[in-house]
Design a protein that fits this description.
The structure is a single chain. By secondary structure, the chain is α/β, with parallel strands linked by helices. A four-stranded parallel sheet has the order 2-1-3-4, with helices on both faces. The mean pLDDT is about 95. The structure holds nickel (II) ion. The site of nickel (II) ion (NI) has 5 residues, from α2.
Length: about 270
Amino acid sequence: MNKKPKAIHPFFDEHNPTMRLDLFTWPEVDEYLRHCKGIILPIGSTEQHGPTGAIGTDALTAQAVAHEVSKRTGVLVTPTQPYGMAEHHLGFAGTMSLRPETLLELVHDLLISLAMHGFEKIFIVNGHGGNIATIKAAFSKAYRTISTMEFSESKSFQCKLANWFMTPEVFKEANSLYGDKEGQHATPSEIALTLYLEPSLLSKQCELPPPSPVGPIYDYKDFRQRYFDGRMGSDPFLANARDGEKFLDKAASVLSKNLLDFLQEP
Ligand code: NI
């Protein structure tokens, strides 16, 4: 993104590092809210990513994209929610999953907390496909809750879900670099981004046998049987840090634009 917004709020400056909520004080948040009602909430997952991918892939990538979007737009970003709905990955060691109803309540409660302070535009940057249905359900539940809250008359409250890995720009890039070796889980595009963020992960990369082909997802036992090493049609060995940097830039660029449009939308 070339054009940066002109001072959404007094804290914004072009050389600003990421605008992290966890490093703000409450008077600073109050001051921020006088000028901007938007906030970014990154959500990932803690789940297996094939035999060579980091368990934290979806949280690391969502956080990196969210932080970069914050840096480019000056919009505040909350701490990353590292756990998601990963029930189908529980057949592989290290996976930590929230049941859909737990994630729904968790996202709902976070949204309501933000609404209570006057945030009106919540932009969720998501790193995991398995979270999508539940996050959308949480939006509906939060809208219902807010409509019955005391301050509802004077408030507008809107949530937007941005799945960085599903943006057309990222899809196109992944397709041109990896073709059908991109697959659907432990993909070279997401692994590339983690290699850029955490160079130590490079030491885990190695050539792998052909993956199980992409197919349906049922329970964790079935998943383990169908996808023997956790991958779904992907060849993460194709990933490298240079491509990861490109993915970060592409995702941050399109999501920054989406966020600024969202903030201006009535
Ligand atoms: Ni993933």
